[in-house]
């Protein structure tokens, strides 16, 4: 149902380092790039896009908004959490079970956007 998610950034260069590393771990890369906008993902699947807000105002974080990244296994959840923290992200919850069959880690990108990496089962 979801085609892509767009998040705002105050510093596209800094954010690109973060998302390049996350995307590489997930076996993908940049799919589109032009002035002030970068997208990552696979052409046939969901992607994440970053941009400076069109209205010229500062990017801000949505309260209660989170982007979930589907990992292949628990080890990849751990790697994604580690990569996020190594590339300017901050911890919002270490990898672990959050309910029966739901394993996840939570983190924020350099602009404060909340993400998680998860695997079911």
Structure commentary:
This protein is of the alpha/beta class. The protein has one domain (4-53, 65-120): 2,3-Dihydroxybiphenyl 1,2-Dioxygenase, domain 1. It has two helices and eight strands; from the N terminus they run βαββββαβββ. The protein has helices spanning 12-25, 74-86; strands at residues 4-8, 29-34, 37-41, 47-51, 66-70, 90-97, 102-108, 114-120. The protein has a four-stranded mixed β-sheet with strand order 1-4-3-2, covered by helices on one side. A four-stranded mixed β-sheet has the order 5-8-7-6, covered by helices on one side. A hairpin with a 4-residue loop joins strand 6 (90-97) and strand 7 (102-108). Helix 1 runs antiparallel to helix 2. The protein is globular, with a radius of gyration of 14 Å. The model has no long low-confidence stretch (mean pLDDT 94).
Structural class: alpha/beta
Provide the CATH topology.
2,3-Dihydroxybiphenyl 1,2-Dioxygenase, domain 1
Number of helices: 2
User: Which regions contain 5 or more consecutive residues with pLDDT less than 50?
Assistant: none
Provide the spatial order of strands within the biggest beta sheet: 1-4-3-2
Query: What is the CATH architecture assignment?
Result: Roll
Order of helices and strands: EHEEEEHEEE
In CATH, the homologous superfamily goes by the name 2,3-Dihydroxybiphenyl 1,2-Dioxygenase, domain 1
User: Which CATH class?
Assistant: Alpha Beta
Protein name: Catechol 2,3-dioxygenase-like lactoylglutathione lyase family enzyme
Keywords: Dioxygenase, Lyase, Oxidoreductase
Domain VOC: 1-120
Organism: Sphingopyxis panaciterrulae
């Amino acid at each position: 149902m979801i085609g892509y998610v767009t998040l705002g950034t105050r510093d596209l260069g800094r954010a690109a380092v973060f998302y390049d590393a996350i995307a590489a771990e997930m076996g993908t890369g940049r799919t589109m790039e032009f002035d002030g906008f970068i997208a990552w993902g696979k052409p046939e699947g969901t992607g994440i896009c970053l941009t400076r807000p069109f209205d010229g105002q500062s990017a801000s974080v949505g309260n209660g908004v989170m982007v979930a990244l589907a990992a292949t296994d628990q080890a990849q959840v751990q790697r994604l959490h580690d990569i996020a923290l190594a590339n300017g992200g901050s911890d919002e919850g270490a990898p672990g079970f959050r309910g029966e069959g739901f394993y996840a880690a939570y983190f924020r990108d350099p602009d404060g956007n909340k993400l998680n990496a998860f695997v079911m089962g």
